[in-house]
Specification:
With 488 residues, the protein is of the alpha+beta class. It has 3 domains: 336 residues, Outer membrane efflux proteins (OEP), CATH 1.20.1600; 62 residues; 40 residues, no CATH class. Helices cover 65% and strands 16% of the residues. The protein is built from 12 helices and 8 strands. A 4-stranded antiparallel beta sheet has the order 2-5-7-8. It has a two-stranded parallel ribbon with strand order 1-6. A two-stranded antiparallel sheet has the order 3-4.
């Protein structure tokens, strides 16, 4: 019963372990990487930032409305002093005095007061009176509420230029995301192909080791059986070959684990995760595209090239932004104000407690020492620099494509050559092995045939790998790695 429990526990552990190992093909590995890769998460955040910057620029199409509320207490009630003189017009009062005098005379009254309201016959038409008084204008506590609205009617095209820059900046962020996707796909492909290659080499070393173990035993039997061609040195040579292949097998196992770790990292998985690939062989190379067409396609899809074209468009918008300072800026300004103060006179009387204003203003820089002119020229020179950079980039992309294309072509030609060589090496190994069993060839010949086949087969796998990596590199440079992945 105890043994059954141990076996069940062991089987459960093996089952759990097998469930943790994820088996993926190339497309599945790429899709996992596109979901989990941290670099792509950063690129997505950059797109969101660019979108918010674009929305900020578009807000210039609307008026700005600000509300200001200020409650304040002054150290004392505000006043103003009236000091000086004032001129008083006495003509009206004198006219009344004269009318009264004439009325009294008409009534036969010859006695009249010498003055009327301080006016007499001797009073001049105008009097100068001194003023020296302090007038209260408001109480010390006030609450002022004000709402202001501003709306630009015309700013020389500056708003449109800024909005165009923000719009193009959003496109640059999207192109950057495509560039990072292409890079992720390239990394996954390279590491995935590396895992496939190391698995092939691992299987090759295991097969070669098995044959060399057989050859070592066969050499031992022939040597002990008194063969005329097999000596002890032949047995030692075969034994040494087995040890060297075992060492190589261990190195290949280590490289396989390193390739898996690199693939896990590119896929955005944890280092402790386990993964197995489904593909055991690489696709057979096919040369179907020409270098000229690839270069033309790169000028259409390459992210760096597209980013530079967008940067040139942004520079045009920056030139327009600088030119706007040559033109007047016109806008509408409106405001409404309410003052709460317990005093009902002075400057806070009922007429002044609620007020509003509406106006149109214009600003035009007539002279600033040539600042605007030099700024426009600076933007034009920056555009010229980008145009010159574009020429360099065109040549650089073409050279990169040429190098990757030649690498791919070289690997393809090696593949064709080694494809035939593998068949020949296998036939040579089988023929030497049969002849050795009949004691017809020397030990070194059969060992060489074993090693030649292993090296030829290994070079064959390496040629497939080189072609696949060169093709992936070419797709990355052209900028169609994501498109190629969708077509898979």
């Amino acid at each position: 019963m105890k043994k059954i429990t141990i076996v069940c526990s062991l089987l459960a552990t093996i089952s759990l372990y097998s469930q943790q190992i994820q088996k993926v093909d190339l497309d599945e590995a790429i899709n996992i990487a596109l979901k989990n890769n941290n670099k792509l998460k950063i690129s997505k955040t950059s797109i969101k930032i660019a979108q918010q910057m674009y929305k900020q620029a578009m807000s210039a199409n609307y008026p700005t409305i600000d509300l200001n509320i200020i409650g304040m207490r002054m150290d004392q009630d505000p006043t103003y002093d009236m000091v000086g003189t004032t001129i008083v017009d006495n003509t009206a009062t004198k006219a009344i005095y004269n009318s009264l005098s004439q009325a009294a005379l008409a009534d036969g009254d010859n006695v009249l007061s010498a003055t009327y309201a301080g006016i007499s016959a001797a009073t001049p038409d105008q009097s100068v009176l001194p003023i020296d008084m302090e007038v209260k204008v408001a109480n010390r506590d006030s609450l002022v509420s004000q709402i202001n609205m501003q709306y630009p009617l015309y700013v020389g095209g500056k708003i449109q230029a800024l909005q165009q820059q923000a719009k193009l900046g959003k496109k640059i962020a999207q192109v950057g995301y495509e560039r990072d996707k292409n890079q992720v796909i390239l990394d996954v492909k390279k590491y995935y192909y590396s895992v496939v290659l190391t698995k092939q080499l691992k299987q090759l070393s295991s097969d070669t080791l098995s044959r060399m173990e057989f050859l070592k035993e066969l050499t031992s039997r022939l040597y002990q059986g008194g063969s005329m061609h097999v000596k002890k040195t032949d047995y030692l040579r075969s034994k040494l070959s087995v040890n060297l292949i075992k060492s190589l097998d261990n190195k290949i196992s280590q490289k396989e684990e390193l390739a898996k770790s690199a693939l896990l990292n590119a896929m955005g998985l944890r280092w402790e995760d386990e993964i197995e690939i489904k593909d055991q062989i690489l696709e057979e190379p096919i040369m179907s595209e020409q270098m000229d067409s690839l270069i033309k396609k790169a000028y259409q899809f390459n992210p760096d090239f597209n980013t530079l074209n967008l940067a040139l468009d942004i520079q045009d918008a920056k030139i327009d932004e600088s030119k706007s300072d040559f033109l007047p800026h016109i806008g509408i300004n409106a405001s409404a104000q309410n003052i709460k103060n317990s005093y009902d006179f002075g400057i806070v009387n009922d007429n002044n407690k609620n007020s509003w204003t509406l106006g149109i203003g214009a600003t035009w820089s007539l002279f600033n020492g040539g600042k605007t002119t030099h700024e426009v020229e600076q933007k034009r020179l920056e555009k010229l620099k980008l145009q010159q950079t574009k020429i360099v980039l065109e040549q650089g992309i073409a050279l990169q494509i040429k190098q990757a294309f030649l690498n791919m072509k070289s690997a393809y030609e090696q593949f064709l050559t080694l494809k035939e060589a593998v068949v020949t090496a296998k036939q040579n190994r089988e023929l030497n092995t049969r002849a050795y069993q009949e004691d017809m060839v020397q030990t070194k010949d059969v060992i060489e045939s074993q090693l030649f086949e292993a090296y030829t087969q290994g070079d064959f796998y390496k040629a497939q790998y080189d072609y696949a990596v060169a093709k992936a590199q070419l797709d990355y440079i052209v900028g169609v790695a994501t498109k190629e992945n969708k077509r898979r």
